[in-house]
Amino acid sequence: MLELVVFICGLSVMIMELAGMRVITPFLGSSFIVWTSVIGVIMTSLSLGYFLGGKYADRKPSVMKLAFVIFLSALYLFLISISQFEFLQKITSSALFNIYFLSVIVAIVLFTIPSILLAMVSPYALKLAILNRNILSANSGTIIGKFSALATIGSIVGTFACGFFLISFFGIDTIFYFLSCLLLITSFLLCISAYKTFLKSKVFIFFIIIQLIILIFAFFLTCYYKKNPRVIFPDSIFSKTTPYSYICVVQDVKHNLRGLSTGDSFFYSILNSNLPKDDFADKYYHKVFMDVFKLKQKKSDVLVLGNAAGLFVRGMVYNSEKNDFNIKNYDVVEIDKELTQIAYDYFDFPKRDNIHMYYEDARTFLNRESILQNKKYDLIYFDIYSGVNLLVPSHLLSIENFQNINKLMQKEGILLINVVSSLEGKMFKYLKQVYTQVKTVFPFVKIYYIEESKNSNFFNFVIIASKEKMETDVQNRFMKEPYKELVIDNLSDKLYTDLYNPFEYFTF
After folding, report:
1. Residue 59: is it exposed, middle or buried by C-beta count within 10 angstroms (0-12/13-18/19+)?
2. 369-411 pLDDT tens trace
3. CA-to-CA distance for 470 and 448, rounded, in angstroms?
4. Among residues 179, 245, 358, 476, which one has the fewest Cβ atoms lying within 10 Å of its Cβ?
């Protein structure tokens, strides 16, 4: 029984860590900074738990005391499952949004106590096993190794089960309820195993009753939230947790708008049903992209990196059909297959034979295709975000990745990159660094934005890059209103490569 307990606790720690990261992602993003905070806090808590578990085990250890420790961890996880959304909404809406500070605080509140309690189980169970089985010190190494192996195996099973199965098929609420129930049942079985000693104790009977009540309550809550999932936005018409993010579709009935969000307060795609299919709700950066698309003389092969709800591809397809453009192929790279289904269901994403979907990380696609070079593109559209910090994933901004893109472009091809930034502060330095990365690889680079959009703190800049000087009609278009060119005179001092890539520094 004690071996099973150690295995379950090892499994629970890893499921809690991975599922907990998914809980945080819609509010703080999934940057390296957030992962560092979560892993650092949990590892610190585990170290403290192992120490306290050993000290606690030396004070008249008993099965009932071990059961109580597991019960407390189950109770805390249960409280997390019913309060995590409200807590995260409140703390992340703070005016002082500092990703370093908030990610550590959130990780401490959510994971410190259950991590300490679960870590206490292994040394405590080990002490009980040695005492109950009268193991001599000469043979204690065997059981110590056995318990350590079981805890590690539990962690391995929990990692693969959560990463490959649980997050894909169950909501985060359900996973935390499952963990809570699993630990409650473990605690319950430990109590039953000690029934001969404690059966007549009122404390034992009360303990069993409390466990059963929580189990029943957790079961009904799981069923309820499976049918009525909690959502961040009150006007949500669809939400789902995928292996990559929390996805939410919001409907604004009054203005006939529909938006896609990955859980935070930003919308990555907005569909206005009042507009023609070849137009967009976003009159800013999509307008820049579409003007290049319309003016580009040759555009038979188009590569789209980052599809989300597919509004840009949708606009290109309907523009092509309306104006009889000769588009041979759209190769669309999107890491999350679920987003494409949502694009079909909610955003009128077109189904055409010349749209080819690739479900993988854009960097993986570019690495492979830059070596094979089976095809070169006339137009490459780059529009990928990594969550609430509004930054492009750092591995897609390295010099090596832009070299990959360069290899895949036709001699007269054009690269369009959407970057959310600002005209001042740290985010301007971020834009300057991205510009430096692109300028190092491509000889002709321009940055444009829509004059009206700069009223916002953060808005869209479009970087246009090419190997050769752009066609005259494309250049002339962006010398007129409403476009505004941003001239950056000096490049950044350092280049960011795959081996040196600290873009997290720019997180606001």
Report:
1. exposed
2. 999 888 899 999 998 876 556 678 888 999 999 999 999 999 9
3. 14
4. 476
Q: Three-state DSSP class for 389?
A: coil
Give me the phi and psi of 164, to 5 degrees please.
-100, -20
Residue with tokens 């009159």: 283
Say how many residues make up the chain.
508
Q: What angle do CA 351, 239, 460 make, to 5 degrees?
A: 70
CA dihedral sign, ordered 477, 482, 483, 484: positive
Distance CA 448, CA 358 (A): 29
Tokens representing 173 are 């609420």
Residue 336: both structure tokens together: 């999350």
**Distance in angstroms (rounded) separating the CA atoms of residues 287 and 438:** 22
As a 3-state breakdown, the chain gives helix, strand, coil percent values, each rounded to 5, of 55, 15, 30
User: By the 8 A CB rule, do 103 and 88 touch?
Assistant: no
Per residue, the 3-state secondary structure of 409-443, as one string, reads EEEEEEEEEEEEECCCHHHHHHHHHHHHHHHHHCC
Matching residue, tokens 């936005």: 233
| Spatial separation of the C-alpha atoms in residues 34 and 263, rounded to whole Å | 16
Question: Do residues 24 and 84 lie in contact, with contact meaning Cβ atoms separated by under 8 Å?
Answer: no
Return contacts of 93-96, CB within 8 angstroms, 24+ apart: none
pLDDT score, position 78: 84
CA distance 387 to 308: 12
Angle at 177 (CA atoms; ends 175, 179), nearest 5 degrees: 70
> In this structure, what token pair is assigned to residue 201?
């104790």
pLDDT for the residue 234: 65
When pLDDT is cut at 50, 70 and 90, the band that residue 330 belongs to is very high
Residue 45 has φ and ψ, to the nearest 5°, of -65, -40
Beta carbons of 350 and 314 less than 8 angstroms apart: yes
What does the block give as tokens for 280? 């967009």
CA R_g for the chain: 27
Among 194, 220, 223, 219, CA closest to 207: 194
Kindly indicate the confidence band of residue 135, based on its pLDDT and cuts at 50, 70 and 90.
low
Q: Are 507 and 390 in contact (CB under 8 A)?
A: no
Residues 380 and 405 sit within 8 Å (Cβ to Cβ):
yes
**Quick one: how many helices (H) and strands (E) in the chain?**
16, 12
**250: phi then psi, degrees, rounded to nearest 5:** -115, 135
pLDDT in tens, 421-447: 888 888 889 999 999 999 999 999 999
